[in-house]
Design goal:
The complex is a heterotrimer of chains A (258), B (284) and C (160). With 258 residues, chain A is mainly alpha-helical. Chain A is built from nine helices and no strands. In chain A, helix 2 crosses helix 6, helix 6 crosses helix 8 and helix 8 runs antiparallel to helix 9. Chain B is α/β, with parallel strands linked by helices and 284 residues long. Chain B contains eleven helices and ten strands. In chain B, helix 3 packs across helix 4, helix 3 runs parallel beside helix 5 and helix 6 packs parallel to helix 7. The radius of gyration of chain B is 22 Å and the shape is globular. Chain C has 160 residues and is of the alpha/beta class. Chain C folds into two domains: 37 residues; 103 residues, no CATH class. Chain C contains three helices and eight strands, in the order ααββββββββα. In chain C, strands 7-1-4-3-2-6-5-8 form an eight-stranded mixed β-sheet, with no helix packed on it. Chain C is elongated, with a radius of gyration of 24 Å. Classes of the chains: A mainly alpha (258), B alpha/beta (284), C alpha/beta (160). Chains in contact: A-B, A-C. Chains A and B meet through helix 5 of A and helix 2, strand 6 and helix 3 of B.
Chain lengths: 258, 284, 160
């Protein structure tokens, strides 16, 4: 009996939470933007969401590419197939690691910051204060942050993959002696624009949507206390990371399983 | 005691009931805020004085009852009408609620930039005027985190009068202020009301400050209005509840003790030592 | 002061967006060459094989190791049920003679299969292949199981 009631209660909480999240998103996005006021806001957010995530993305992309090259080389050289190092690295990065790892890093770096910032604005009554000034906080605060995250992540994922390929080139070609021409040409032979690059971009667009949506909603919906903000921030990172991994499986199944 | 819509009253609240969950915050209260006057709402902490301001601002909706602002029933307004109406009022939050990512100047310019297309040169003049009014023209380039609590509240005050509203809602303007900045804020509220004809609603529990600036006072406790009148009338009030609040006595109709089972019973629970009961008895 | 700040923000955002787009462009052009340049001018030749092994659409066609085109289609002939491979050859290699032969080869021991073109000699009596022509001389893919079978068979006959 009690379990049943608990199940019902949790289901209701989940559904009403989803409903609120949809309402927050729709009312933030469904309006005609004012370019004169909106663009500077979007730029400021692109800076704090995108530019500030560049370092972590570039560094991790580089290291992941280097590790891929090192691991791949030791495996491939056993079959005398080290010429396939280029496509192996490129395909791993473009299809999976680029979109997924940059999404996970983005959730930790930018998603948590978005939630904490919005939550703090709520706790310090800045959101209420906007409302009382007849400025809709959903449009003024939530919308530019959402768009900034949505635009930033696909770009960051592309930068991640590119840096990763150069990292792999550094290790594979410059250190381990794989022929540079082979590295690029075999990669070009095997990597398909539609199948690999476009699908990778689609993945990161989906992840960007999910992460920024969760981040801004958790901040906006949080309990305006210090514990509330810390809970919301944790929830953003945990939920968006799990959702990214689950969605990655579904998208991969749809895209690559023929 | 239903109040009629009157041209002298900017805000009229009729038969308002508000619940938070199961808890009743207001039980069928009615009050009016006269135009151009400083009206104070007093009462002990935790009875939802701030809630009343949020109700007037339309941020939350009551269970039942009317909240008329200039004749418009706030809870019944559409979103768009509500935002239109809010341009005519402003609220000074307890924390100041300054935007932490903007300088003092930009904070005050913010509502003007949002709601008008004035050229920057004119906006600057307005901002400087408002800053001068609160005595902080020299602080225009500071960031909010560089301000003391009192200064932050004065900047927030300058921001809330930036668009020359008809009504200002002050949420605990005196709480946590040192005596000097308290004096400054008291003077500012009074002079804004006198000089600009602003209607002010001050929510507070600081009795002496409120007594010194309010034209009319409502005292709310236990979900009801328990007393009202000019400061003089409040001082003369015979009601034990009002007396207790105004004179700041610890015990009275509002009991010192939070409702609890009998102290004696709780102490001897499970021990059942008569001697202990006798000791407590003796102490009384 | 404030203008300086917003200029810096704008500059950094501009840099970020440019970097992102550059990365996308590099990925499309340098990492995946085929998707875009594959649409260049080309013409089709056809070849029938007994067995195509692991050949796939988009497998490369090479002459002496140089990629001259890609497999654009693989189908089964309706009458004799032999595989027909459509070879999409780049325009600049447009004069293969009729004596040209094709084979399905494997790059390395475990590598991908590709189509190897062996240009035949040119002679006045021979014409060049026109778009849509069939290449007559074809060698099927080597299938390991058949190879082993043949080997065992020849071993067995050698014993007698």
């Amino acid at each position: 009996m009690q379990q049943l009631q608990l199940l019902g209660k949790n289901t209701l909480a989940l559904v009403s939470g989803l409903g609120r999240a949809v309402i927050v998103l729709l009312s933030a996005l469904l309006h005609t933007p004012n370019p004169r006021k909106g663009l500077p806001l979007l730029f400021a957010q692109l800076y704090s969401v995108g530019v500030m995530s560049l370092v972590i993305i570039v560094v991790s992309g580089g290291f992941i590419g280097m590790v891929l090259a090192l691991q791949g080389y030791t495996i491939l050289v056993g079959y005398g197939a080290e010429a396939s190092l280029g496509p192996m690295v490129a395909l791993s990065l473009l299809r999976e690691l680029g979109p997924v790892v940059s999404a996970l890093l983005f959730a930790g770096r930018a998603g948590s910051a978005l939630t904490a910032e919005i939550g703090l604005m709520k706790a310090t009554e800045q959101l209420s204060s906007l409302e009382m000034m007849a400025v809709d906080p959903l449009r003024r605060v939530i919308a530019p942050r959402f768009w900034a995250g949505f635009i930033s992540l696909p770009l960051l994922a592309a930068i991640f993959s590119m840096v990763g390929i150069f990292g792999a080139h550094l290790v594979g070609v410059d250190w381990l002696g794989v022929d540079g021409g082979t590295f690029w040409s075999v990669m070009q032979d095997q990597v398909d624009f539609n199948k690999d690059i476009l699908n990778g971009i689609i993945k990161s667009v989906v992840f960007a949507f999910v992460i920024t949506w969760i981040a801004v909603y958790k901040g906006y919906d949080c309990e305006p206390t210090s514990e509330g903000i810390s809970r919301a921030t944790t929830a953003t990172v945990v939920q968006s990371s799990l959702l990214v991994l689950a969605l990655d499986f579904i998208l991969t199944a749809l895209m690559f399983a023929s | 005691m239903t109040t009629q819509v009157n041209s002298d009253n900017l805000v009229a609240i009729n038969n308002l009931t508000f619940k938070r969950g199961e808890r009743v915050i207001y039980d069928d209260i009615s009050l009016v805020i006269p135009k151009g006057k400083v009206t104070a709402i007093m009462g002990p902490s935790g009875i939802g004085k701030t809630t009343l301001l949020r109700l007037i601002g339309g941020q939350i909706r009551p269970e039942s009852g009317q909240i008329l602002f200039a004749g418009k029933d706030i809870p019944k307004l559409s979103r768009k009408e509500l935002y239109e109406t809010r341009k005519r009022m402003s609220m000074l939050f307890q924390s100041g609620a300054l935007f932490t990512d903007m300088s003092v100047y930009d904070n005050i310019a913010f509502p003007i930039r949002e709601h008008s297309n004035l050229p920057e040169a004119i906006i600057e003049k307005i901002v400087l005027m408002k800053l001068e009014a609160v005595g902080l023209r020299g602080a225009r380039d500071l960031q909010p985190n560089e301000l003391s609590g009192g200064m932050a509240r004065r900047v927030a005050l300058a921001r809330s009068i930036a668009l020359d509203p008809e009504l200002i809602l002050y949420d605990e303007p005196f709480a946590g202020q040192d005596p000097i900045s308290m004096g400054v804020i008291v003077r500012l509220i009074r002079s804004l009301s006198d000089a600009l004809g602003l209607t002010s609603v001050v929510v507070s529990h600081d009795v002496p400050e409120v007594m010194s600036i309010a034209d009319y006072i409502y005292i709310i406790a236990e979900q009801k209005i328990i007393g009202q009148g000019t400061p003089e009338q409040i001082r003369q009030d015979d009601s034990a509840l009002v007396k207790q609040f105004v004179q700041g006595q610890a015990d009275g109709p509002v009991p010192f003790h939070f409702p609890a089972p009998s102290y004696q019973q709780e102490l001897v629970k499970g021990v059942a030592i008569d001697a202990l009961a006798n000791v407590t008895q003796g102490n009384k | 002061m404030k203008d300086m700040m917003s200029k810096k923000v704008e500059l950094m955002v501009g840099f970020f967006v440019a970097l992102g787009i550059a990365a996308l462009l590099m990925l499309s052009l340098k990492v995946a060459n085929s998707g875009i340049s594959g649409n260049g001018d080309s013409y089709n030749l056809l070849a029938k094989f007994d067995n195509i092994g692991g050949l796939k659409v988009r497998s490369p066609i090479k002459v002496g190791g140089v990629v001259v085109g890609r497999v654009s289609d693989i189908s089964l002939d309706n009458e004799d049920y032999t595989p027909v491979v459509t070879l999409k050859i780049y325009k600049e290699y447009s004069s293969f003679s009729e004596a040209t032969s094709v084979a399905i080869l494997t790059s390395g021991l475990l590598g991908e299969q590709y189509v190897g073109l062996q240009p035949g000699f040119m002679d006045d009596s021979l014409e060049t292949l026109q778009p849509g022509d069939y290449i007559e001389d074809t060698k099927p893919a080597l299938v390991l199981e058949e190879l082993i079978g043949q080997f065992l068979f020849s071993q067995g006959s050698g014993d007698e």
